[in-house]
Structure formats: structure tokens, C-alpha cells
Amino acid sequence: MSTTNQPGDTVQAGSSRRAELLALAGRLFAERGFKSTTVRDIADAAGILSGSLYHHFDSKEQMVDEILTAFLDDLFGTYREIVAQDLGPRKTLEAAVAASFDAIHKHHDEVAIFQHEAKYLVQFPRFAYLADRNAEFYQLWTSILTEGVRTGAFRADLDVELTYRFIRDTVWVAVHWYKPGGSLTAEDVADEYLGILLDGIATRRGKKPGGKGSGSSG
Amino acid sequence: MSTTNQPGDTVQAGSSRRAELLALAGRLFAERGFKSTTVRDIADAAGILSGSLYHHFDSKEQMVDEILTAFLDDLFGTYREIVAQDLGPRKTLEAAVAASFDAIHKHHDEVAIFQHEAKYLVQFPRFAYLADRNAEFYQLWTSILTEGVRTGAFRADLDVELTYRFIRDTVWVAVHWYKPGGSLTAEDVADEYLGILLDGIATRRGKKPGGKGSGSSG
DNA sequence: TCACCTCCCTAGCAAGTGCTTGGTAGCCTA
DNA sequence: TAGGCTACCAAGCACTTGCTAGGGAGGTGA
After folding, report:
1. Residue A159: which residues within 8 A CB-CB, separation 6 or more?
2. Contacts of B180 (CB under 8 A, 6+ apart)
3. Do A151 and B32 count as a contact with CB atoms less than 8 A apart?
4. Residues 40-79 of A with CB under 8 A from B
5. Cα(A90)–Cα(A152) distance, rounded to whole angstroms?
6. What is the arithmetic mean of pLDDT over A193-198?
């Protein structure tokens, strides 16, 4: 796209009406899924006809693309800031978890879309960047965990790969039940989760740390 | 449906061809989602035409209904057996987690379908039973946790509601990455997860002396 | 031989899909 | 007052969707 509109071009990204439509589309994509949301659904929600959407966007794909790109740029910017602060493994993990729950709070629809649609969308060349983001995400968390094991902040017998998956999943899947504006703030949830993740739910009973979970303690 | 087939009825549930088709449909529903899987996709996978599916099934909905019903009957049967054994909170939790990962191993597609489609399907009267199952699931886990807090097996300051969500989510979302036949068995994964859930990933430092970490940073 | 069964095919319908085309009303600027 | 802009509508195209109607091949039992 050139810097000035050519006749027939869709509207510039700055338009406020465009932003409204994107937000509406995001809400529906998050609720019903990308494929299951029709352009007529989006248009109905906006009070216009489906064809009119194509004044603003080239395609339905472009809508979800813009939503995800903006969100991921923002989220990974935050992650990089956290890592750059060099807080040590434990504090870095705490900050990254908090930032993730904060993202669920502030960008609820976007997180839901990313979580549900990335696997499907990434197969299309247009969305190849989603794979890069996933790789960066993996790198971020596993290096925190590995460093923590090295320094002794985290248990030496930790399976970093599995722990990464558990953290990733638990954090993002919270988008299913976390409601912005509910009684629990994102901070509350992050604190409670970090409590479980770092120290576990069991009480200490003279049990040796580092043992596998199935030790007898009736 | 009556006990004998009427002309025009679909085939009885016992047919082996029918079971094959159900398994194929389950695989596709799990991979692409229920709405995004077309009857032509299923028929293609089976090497027949889409219309021929309607010899075996009344509708696409019936397919997913049968898949979910059979799976949930099986899963909740297992849960009830565990609870009936009265093992105490910690062992009950361990057994329930293990049973859940085992379900992911043995009924991978079904778990994926349940996890992704329940929220959408439950809005239709036919699938109202999904809400009952969710309620039973909630009851199962929160009573284990509450009992554990009462007996002192779990931390007194535990937020049972939140902890329930974390456990539920982490367990089921593993269906995304757990591959039956991979290097990790469902038991391995369950053990590792229980290790994190019960004792946390952090080494003991602030709480009690005796951990090997020396408090290097933050 | 015949009815009846399972399993599948051919052909197609009505509704819904993303998207396109040509046009219009109102606003702003020179 | 002409020209260009934004935002939309009306109509419809090519295709996909779940599902249906009617039929036929091959097997089974009486």
C-alpha cells in the first residue's frame, strides 16, 4: 500500500471507524472463532451490510492479521523490557507471569484469538510470523527456567521443557474464565498463581524437597 | 429410535463401519473444530461421499454427541471410582490428576473436542448434559481441595476456586502438546505436574533453611 | 426365488459463505 | 461549483454448507 490512497484502496489504518470495526471483529473472533465468524456477523454487529466492510478492509484475513500483529508487538515489547531489566530468574518469572495476566486483562479478545486461532492461521504464509512469535515465547520462558535452575532459584530436578508448557498453558488458558472488571484483578490472579507455581499447594511435612510427587504421605 | 430398524432409519450403533466413521469424525473434529469440519471432510477421509454418511448418522451433531457422551460416561465413571476409594485429599488429587492425563492419552481426540467445543455446544438443548458434567467436575475438584485444606494436607491460605481453575486448565490443555506414543508417557507427565502443583518449582529459601539455594539474587 | 439387509452412489436443494460491482449521500476544500 | 473524499447500500456472483431423495450392488436367510 502506498502512502496516499489510490482510488479503490481500502481506507487508511488511522480511521476511527476502522478501529471500531476492528474491535467489533475482534470480539466476535474471540467469542466464536475466526472461521465461524462470518463477515455478515461482523457487519450486523456494526449495523452495516457485509459488503461495506470491504471499504475498510481487503479481506477477513486482514482483520485478524492486524489485530494479532498489533497485540503481539505490544506484548513482546513488554516481555523484552522485563528481560532487559535483568532481575534474576525468580523476579523475572514473576514479572513475566504478571505481564501475561495483565495482557489477558487489557487485551482479552486478542489473547483469546491468539490462543485459539494461531495453530490454524500459522499454516498460511501471511501468518508465518506467528511461528516466530511462538519460538520467541519458548526462548523467553525456557531461558528464565534454565537460568533459575542454574542459580539454584528453582529446583534442580525440574524438567524445563514440561514446566514451560505448564506455565504457558495455565497462564493463557485463564482467558477462558478471567473477566475484566470482575472481583479478581489480574494482579490477584497472578499472585495466587505464582504462589502455587513457586511453592506448591501442599503443606510442608518434613518432606524432602525435590522428591517426585507420588511420595507417600497419608 | 425403536429397537428394530425402520426403513430409512440410520444404522444401529453396533456397526463396526459406523465406529470407524465416528473415529474419523472425532479425529477431524479434534483437529479442525466441530464447525470448521465439514461432512465432506469426514466423507473424504472415509473414502465415501458426503451423502453416504447419512446412512449411518442422522446429523453431524449426532456424531459429536455420541463421541462426547461415550467419553464422558467413561471418564466420570473413573472419577467416581477414585472418590469412592476414600484415599484422603492428597492421594485422591494425585489419582484424579493421573486419571485425567491417562484420559488425554487414551482418548486424545475426545478430550480435545470436549475442551474446545463444549462451550459452543452447550447452548443447544441437545448438549445440555455438558453443563451437568462441568458442574460435577467442579464439585469433584473443589471438594478434594476443600477437604485437603480442612485436614491440613493443603495450604490453609489456598484460594480453592482459583486453584481449581488452574488445575483444571493445566490438565486439560495438555491435550494440545501431549502426543500419545511420544517419549513421555501420561504417567511421566502426571508425576512432573504433581511435583510442581504440590511442592512448587522454587527451592526452599525464605520459608525454611535447608534448601541448597543461597539467595543469590532477589 | 424372493424379501430384506448394509453400504454406498448420483444428483441436487436451500441456505449461507467471502467478496465484488456500481452507485449514492454528505462533507470538505480550493 | 467542481472535484475528491469517507462511509455506506443494493444486488449478486461463485462457491460451500448440511442434508435429502431415490436407487443399486452385493450379501443373508427363508
Report:
1. B192
2. B105, B106, B108, B186
3. no
4. none
5. 10
6. 94
pLDDT value at B5 more than 80: no
Number of H helices, E strands in chain B: 9, 0
* Residue B139 burial (C-beta neighbours within 10 Å; 0-12, 13-18, 19+): exposed
Hey, is the C-beta of A198 within 8 angstroms of any chain B C-beta?
yes
Q: How many contiguous H segments (helices) and E segments (strands) does chain A have?
A: 9, 0
Cβ neighbours, 10 Å, residue A61: 14
Buried b (16+ CB within 10 A) or exposed e, B27-47: bbbbeebbeebebebbbeebe
Mean pLDDT across A75-88: 97
Which nucleotide, over all strands, has the C1' atom closest to the CA of B21?
Answer: C7
Query: pLDDT per residue over B43-78, tens digit each?
Result: 999 999 988 999 999 999 999 999 999 999 999 999
The secondary structure of B117-172 as a DSSP string is: HHHHHTTSGGGTHHHHHHHHHHHHHHHHHHHHHHHTSB-TT--HHHHHHHHHHHHH
Q: Which residues make Cβ contacts (< 8 Å) with residue A113, sequence separation at least 6?
A: A26, A29, A30, A34, A64, A67, A68
Instruction: Tell me which chain A residue has its CA closest to the CA of residue B154.
Output: A202
The three three-digit cell numbers of residue A159, written as one number: 524438567
Contact, B58 CB vs strand D, < 7 Å: yes
- The helix/strand/coil state of A154 is strand
pTM here? 0.87
Nearest of A184, A181, A198, A202 to residue A96 by alpha carbon: A198
Listed as own residue / partner, the contacts of B112-116 with beta carbons closer than 8 Å and 24 or more positions apart are: B112/B29, B112/B30, B112/B31, B112/B175, B112/B176, B113/B26, B113/B29, B113/B30, B113/B34, B113/B64, B113/B67, B113/B68, B114/B68, B114/B71, B114/B72, B114/B172, B115/B172, B115/B173, B115/B175, B116/A116, B116/B30, B116/B33, B116/B34
Taking the CA atoms of residue B187, residue B190, residue B191 and residue B195 in that order, the dihedral angle to the nearest 10 degrees is: 180
Extract the C-alpha cell encoding A201: 499447594
Strand partners, A154: B202
Q: What pairs with residue B211 in β-bridges?
A: B209
Question: Over the stretch B70-123, which tens digit does the pLDDT of each residue have?
Answer: 999 999 999 999 999 999 999 999 999 999 999 999 999 999 999 999 999 999
